[in-house]
Amino acid sequence: MSRWEEFLKDSIGDTEQINKLRSWMGKLFSDGQRPESLLVLSGPGPSGKSMLLSLLVAMVGNERSLTRLPDMGKPFDVAKMKGKKLIVLDVEQAKKKKISAGIKTLLGNDHLVGRERYKKSEIFAPECGVACSVNLVDFDDALTGRILKIDMKQTADRDPNLLSDLLSDAVFIKDWALSL
């Protein structure tokens, strides 16, 4: 059993939820596809929520990730999403009800208008998945049907080498996600 499979067994355990996560990750790693649901990693700490998000950011690449949802009402902020593959909401942002419309826009097939400094406005389709970790899930009704909630369970201890161990399995993890 690979370190990745051990991590999934220890942190999630449920085969159905692991397969749903696998499908979401497969879309994240596929060119021309993107997850159409908000990945919500839910559970007590330490359960691997932050570890999994850190792994996803590392695998997608920092240059193709954002760690906050930009202000959808500001074209200069919206432009930051162009070409990004993953947006990870921070805990405080995930708790705010007013971001639901922005998440819904990203998860739908809506086009966005962004503008980089000293350039004309540009229309583009978002290519990113959106994920967050929370202890309790409490999103408003606007996101009903657009949330993939993965319940993670408390693990016995934190392994300080886990992220580096998982990153050494990055090719295996990507192949695992894409093979579903």
- How many structural domains can be distinguished in the coordinates? 1
Query: What is the fold-level CATH name, i.e. the topology?
Result: Rossmann fold
How many helical stretches? 8
Strand order of the largest sheet: 2-3-6-1-7
Going by CATH, the architecture would be 3-Layer(aba) Sandwich
Question: Which homologous superfamily in CATH is the superfamily?
Answer: P-loop containing nucleotide triphosphate hydrolases
Question: How would you sum up the global shape?
Answer: globular
Short description:
With 180 residues, this protein is an alpha/beta fold. Helices cover 38% and strands 15% of the residues.
Structural account:
The protein has 180 residues and is an alpha/beta fold. It has one domain: P-loop containing nucleotide triphosphate hydrolases (Rossmann fold). Helices cover 38% and strands 15% of the residues. It has eight helices and seven strands. It has helices at residues 3-11, 15-29, 49-60, 75-78, 91-95, 100-107, 162-168, 170-178; strands at 38-42, 65-66, 86-88, 112-114, 122-124, 129-134, 147-151. It has a five-stranded parallel beta sheet with strand order 2-3-6-1-7, sandwiched between helices. The chain has a two-stranded antiparallel sheet with strand order 4-5. Helix 2 (15-29) crosses helix 8 (170-178) and helix 3 (49-60) packs across helix 7 (162-168). It starts with a helix and ends with a helix. The mean pLDDT is 87.
